[in-house]
Amino acid sequence: RKKEIYAIIKEIEKEQKKFLKRKSKYFDKKGIALNNSYLTQREAFDALFEEYYTERMNIQSSYWTRDSRIRTIFKEDEWNGMMTAVLEKPDKDKARKGFNKESDKLFEGIINSCKKNIQDEGKRLSAVNAVEGAQMEVNAFVEAYLNQDYDHLETLRSKNASKEDFDKAASQINALRKGVLTHLIDMRFQVISNTTEDEWGKISKELDQ
Hints:
mainly alpha, 7 helices
């Protein structure tokens, strides 16, 4: 049984590595190129996100197929013992603090760049307000994401978790991730509407993170 389990785990790792490589080489690079261009239309971002999440959901479905095979190999007491031994529930407050630190760094960088590079005072204020509003929205989405993630973690740890449980978790988590991206893109277009092409060229790099 051990060899069969290890073989399935290797399949999962191989597929994850392949997807992460494609994300880095294709989705991330294309997203940066779209962001940096002053002329990019909203539809281009929507198409990229749709392509990304279609592939992401395919990977998630494939993961469940292999994960369910592993679950059938374990006996109930073995599975529960393994979950207790190797999976500690992460500290939500620690995860929140980590996100807030990254969020503050991102949005402060954008705000500072807007203040430095947008010459028109009125447009500069409008851009800064848009960024501050986006940060509030994104933080709210992330709080919901943390709550959903932790709730689903409890459900999916059970050996008897079903495909429906997994699909529900994946769907809700993906929707929240999309919500964060949507607010960031909304913010991008609000800021860009208050800049010249040259000003945006300097500010856009802060969003490439």
